[in-house]
Amino acid sequence: MDLKEKQKGPIAVYGATGFTGKLVARELEKAGAEFIIAGRNREKLDRVASGLESDPPRVAVTVEDREGLREMLADCSTVIACAGPFTLHGEPVLAAAVETGTNYLDTTGEQPFIAMAYDRYGGRAEKAGIAVIPGMGFDYVPGDMIASLTAQGMDGLDTVRLAYATDFQMTRGTMLSALEMIKGGDLEWRNGRLVPADPSVDRGRFDFGSPLGEVQMTRYPAGEHLTVPRHIETERVETMLSAGSIAPGALEKVTPYVARPLGVLMRTPVRKLTGRLVGRLPEGPTPESRAVASFTVCCEAIADGRVHRGRISGRDVYGITAAFIVKGAIAAALGDIERSGGLAPSEAFDPALFLDGFEDFSLEWSVDTATS
After folding, report:
1. Domain boundaries, the chain
2. 24-50: per-residue pLDDT in tens?
């Protein structure tokens, strides 16, 4: 019996005409899954389908067409949502998924959307017996899962600290989502609860070890403040991003000083102007650029003087996003996710098992449990 015969229904890809959506469609085809592609524009969907051997069904439907979204998902087991910024465009697809009893995964990196997905739809999803798993791409599978692996066997955790270092060219979609993320108003897990995040930008320096060494860090309103406490008991979650990930070279030193004023600007009409300028940029990186793009996420789990250190690294942020979310979606389509409701990646999947099989992206992880 092949994969299509085992699926409980096709997998829908909404936002299939975007950069990441096209990668997801190719990954589903490579896996031999049954899927449909969907988005706002029929002509663009036809162009995407023409680049695929499987000639998948396509559905042109806007996020404003709530009934159309429900009709699209009525026979689907799972939907992969790729159309962002999610805080602006994501909720209708999520709502339709829960209403039709369709498992939901997305590629969002936007903290407010993840919070909304858990708070507004988690309970409804549990009653419907489906999984709602936001942040199932590079944002935030590596960070959430290396946190789980690093914290294993530790009680009385004080802090889970996650430090990101990346080197990749953003797509237009990522840039637009980033504009939403830096506006502020984000939350952090502190003293065992979600509270307004510390608005300061400078996060000091962090030692990533060889070959990156010690680098300047800056504020990062990451989703792990929401995902990690769902499966790890800890008083505090800290997330940070290397300044060089935002502005490499000489600009790295000034990043902590310009980030906060930029966030203020993004709460003014300047954001719309910036969005229009971003829309004129190339859709995303070339295959050659993707191939050399890299990431490293380090984790420190701290409990009463004991420190476990974890590290996960790989390459091709967008390619691995597609591979992550397709692996998760196929598991959902096969009925292999044992839990229902709003789930963090590490709640839905066993991290050590899930992270196996991504050799094409040079994915490696390790945990050092030596106490320092």
Report:
1. 3-138+319-354, 141-317+359-368
2. 999 999 999 999 999 999 999 999 999
User: Would you tell me how many other CB atoms lie within 10 Å of the CB of residue 95?
Assistant: 18
Local structure of residue 150 (DSSP, 8 states): H
Q: Give the C-alpha separation, 46 to 289, whole Å.
A: 26
Q: Is 326 exposed, middle or buried (0-12, 13-18, 19+ CB in 10 A)?
A: buried
Fold of 141-317+359-368: Dihydrodipicolinate Reductase; domain 2 (3.30.360)
Cβ partners under 8 Å of residue 181, min gap 6: 109, 110, 111, 221
Low-confidence ranges of the chain (pLDDT < 50): 249-252, 254-255, 257-259, 262-266, 270-271, 273-275, 277-280
Chain-centre distance of CA 286, in angstroms? 21
**Digit-coded pLDDT (tens) for 64-110:** 999 999 999 999 999 999 998 999 999 999 999 999 999 999 999 99
d(CA 137, CA 326): 9
User: Smallest Cα–Cα separation from 219: which of 271, 261, 256, 246?
Assistant: 256
3-state SS, residue 254: helix
Find all residues with CB under 8 Å of 7, minimum gap 6, and list them. Answer: 33, 34, 77, 330, 333, 334
Place of tokens 């476990």: 308
Specify the amino acid at residue 86: F
CATH number assigned to the domain covering 3-138+319-354: 3.40.50.720
Task: Indicate the Cα dihedral angle 319, 181, 261, 217, nearest 10°.
Answer: -50
